[in-house]
Every structure is written in structure tokens, then in C-alpha cells.
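Bench notes, bay 3.
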Amino acid sequence: MTEEAEMSTLADDINKQIGAGRKSIERSLDEMKEMEMPKLPPAGLVAAGLVTAVVAVGIVGWLVYRSRRRRTLVQRLQAALPDSVRDLPQGVRAQVKRAL
């Protein structure tokens, strides 16, 4: 074979390898496009979740604080009395207080 024919054959081989590489890359790109990427939630949704969590923690904290706080004697007595006693007129209430 002549030198020119050998170079032509070598160039054809290189072109075939380049073409095969390009096809391989194109297939890989097509496969990547078909893959489903995990969808991240928008920043607003994350912020809303954080605000909701902070509010929930605040409410739970307030409820715990209220349940642990010691009530005064007057508050405990008022809670123990039925509503009908609290609804009595002032005159009857005064008489009950004097009797105690």
C-alpha cells in the first residue's frame, strides 16, 4: 500500500472512532434527559413549613407553661365553684361571704 492509502485508512479509522464516540455521548445525553431528577420543593414551601413548625413549638410551649404555672387560691376556688354560685346577685354573695 502506498503511504497515501495508509494515511487515508488511518484517517477513516480515526473518523469512525470519533463518530462512535459522538454517538455514545448523544445516547448518554438522551438517557440523562429521560432520567427523572428529584424535584426540590420551592423555597416558599420550605419557609412556610419552618414558620408552621415554629408556631407549633410556640403553642406547645405556651400550653406547657400554662399547665405548670401555679394558680392562686382565689383562682382555684373560683374554678371549683359552680357557675350558678358566681351568677348570684351581689346581695346574696355578700351574705355568703359574711357567713364564711
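Next record in the batch:
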Amino acid sequence: MNKDEKKKILNLYEKWAGEDSIDIDLLPESGSYRRYYRIKSKHKHALGAYFESPNENKAFIELSRYFRKNGLNVPEIYLVDDDFKAYLLEDLGDSVLFNTISDIKKKHGFNDELVGIYKNIIDDLVNFQIVVGENVDYSVCYPSGDFDTQAYMWDLNYFKYNFLKLAQIPHNEYYLEEDFRKLVQLLMSVDSSYFVYRDFQTRNIMQYKNKLYFIDYQGGRRGPVHYDLVSLLFQARVAMPAEIREHLIDYYIHKAEKIAPHSVKDFRHHFYKFVLIRILQTLGAYGFRGIHEKKQHFLKSIPQAINNIKWLMENKKIPHGLDELMKCLNAIIHSEELQNTISPPLKIIVNSFSFKRGVPPDNTGNGGGFVFDCRALPNPGRIEEYKKLNGKDQQVIDFFEKHQEVEDFITHAEMLVEQSVKVYDKRGFTNLQVNFGCTGGQHRSVYCAEKMAQRLYLYDNIKIEIHHREQDE
């Protein structure tokens, strides 16, 4: 903790609070180089922010004041130092929406509750972009008031220098620059008269007092509405299913069309051009913070961003005529060196089996893993109508879902497995085996193995194989 920086923050706090501070903690670093301090005194508390970029700080401060004045949920700015390097703002706690979404996904998949959360976010996004955004003073924006040709080229070159070059992806620089210019021309043909938040994703949304609060819009500027929705729906670590994305795109169009019909004219025709540039920009960020700075959080985001590239290519969503860029994207997808850089996924083999034949052997040579005995659970195999079915049949699934002890058993098993998954991932282990056994290897073990696999699929950087020994033979 820098002593001069801390002193500046404390002086600012005590001037605002009118009382001495009793505690100050430097918060863990996140995605930026801005430093945050949590400060408390007898009757008040606040966050102190410090960053050696007065103009960027000023953009955040002025936008915050404007948004808050117009009813948007953003942190209140309490006091700003004369040099604009330090300021005090409302403490919104530690509950980041991304973590809530991840927890719900692990337990229930991408269910109606999550879709409802995203619809609420989209309602706020439309307000940011179109309603309140209509009268933003773009002269305070940093480094530019507009998402213009230069801004797009910065993002594309950020991708080239901080991802392609660091990941050693071969490319013809001249032809790639030509493709960049073609892509920017397509992007600039779209109406760009709305507020663009710039990094609109769930890590920049806080949950505070049962409301959603928005932060980190200091890079906001005037531009196209598509970009922010792309940032939200294609956030790499969320891995939103394609069908859910399509539904939420329709919802956004419906909401925006009510307020400003021209804002979503030919929306889908243009949307995936912005998906492409946003993925390239985020890969640049992941390359710099992950490959260059060796930060694991950013390295772990690269595989999902690559999955988004695969999806664009498989669904023919990339504009024609970008031949060199397409070569680069193909090389990224198939690069063994890149895969080694970002570390291989942890492979989890989930087995169901009959105890009559013993536990399945571990052929990876890793040893260890888990064996869960399902024989204490309710057994549908004793009921005539279920005898010829197995744990993947809907009638059997319905049977198990009526018994809370089955759900409790799987949840407790997942908690044990999750602990190993986290440690294995940190230590670079590549294999883990999880086995569920019952009497015949037909009902209980099959159902539990399937449910465990469904939950594990939602973890990051995991590859799942599932085998039902007695059913597959």
C-alpha cells in the first residue's frame, strides 16, 4: 500500500466524513489498474479510488453524476481531490452479479430465473443507451467522445499485438490490416448516435440493497447500440447458450423499438459484426493480462472466447472478404501452442457402475478420485413399471425428482468433487474420476452420474466424459 496514496485517500475521507477513520483496507486488484480502498469510521463508510489518469477519472465521475441525477443505479460520488487522481464514492459491497449467475448456473443451468435477471439488465441497458444516454455530455468522455474509426482500429490492433503476436499465431500483417479496414468500414456504416457503456458485462454489475448497480463505464462514448448487448450476451465466462442469446436479442429489440424504432433498424443484420470485433478486443485483453502478465483469471477466459469464435464460424456469422482474418481465426482454434499456453482443461470421467462387478478402473494412471455408493437411495428397480428402464428415462427421472434425499445426495457429492476440481485446476492436474455405483448399475447410479455431469458441465475449463458401464456394454 503506497503511503502517499493512502494518506491522500484518508485526508479526502476525513474531510468528507467529518470524523477520523478507524479502518482502511486495500481491495484485491480486478481487471483494471485502478486501486480501491474500503474505509470506515464510527458513523460512515466509503470507497476511496486512486488512479494516475485524471482524465479517465473525470470521465467516470462526470458520467456518474449525470446518470445518478437521471435515476440510474450508479455509485454516488462523494468527494473528488483537486488533481482528479483520487475520489470517494459509495461502497456498493462485494456482491458481483457474475458470481450469482455462476452459482445459479451450477445448480440449475440457464433457467428462467437467469433469463429474468438478464431481461432486467437489458431494461437498464436501454435506459443507459437511449433514454438517459440521449443527453450525455460527450466532451467529458475519455479518450474520445465517439466510437470512431480510430477507436475500432485501436481495438483491432490491441488484438493483433497482445493476442496474435503473444500467442505466436502466424499472419500476414499487410493483408490483416486490410481486413481490419474492411471490417471498420462495415461497423462505421451503422447508426452511431447512442451512449455505449463499452464494457457492459456482469462483472461490472453489483447487487446492493436488492437492486442492480452499474460500475466501470469510464470508457463510455457515443456509438452503436449493438456493442453493449454483444458485451453482455457474449461474456466469455458466462457461456450463454445460443438459444437463450437469440431470445434475449429479441427482447432487446422489442424494448428499444418502443422508445426509438430507428435504433434497432436492421439490428440482426449488423449485430454479428459487433460480436466479431468485441471478441477480438476481449482476446487482446486476455492476451495482455493472461499470456503477458500471467494472470490465471484471464487465461481461463480464453477457451470460452475461442468457443465463441468457433460458433461465429460454424454459423457463418463472419462477413465475407476477410480472408486473412479468417486464416488467423482458424489458426487460433487449432493452435496446439496456444492450448499449451492456456493449459489443457481438467478431464473429468463420470462413471455409473454395478458393485457386483466392482469399481471401474482408472485408465489415466492418475489414481484417486471418488466413489459414491447410491444403494441407500430409493430404488425404482424394485417397482415393476421401472424394471426395464434406466436412470436416463423420463419416468425414472420423475421418480427420483420426487425424493429430496436424492437431490441432497447429489448436492453433497458435488460439494466434495468441487473442492478437488478447484485444487486440480490450480495445480494443473489433467484427470479426475467420479464414480456412482448401485446394485445393478441401471437406475440410481445412472441418474446420479447424469446429474453430476450436468452440473460439472457448467464449470470453467472442464472436459466431461460420461460412461454407463452396464448400459453401454
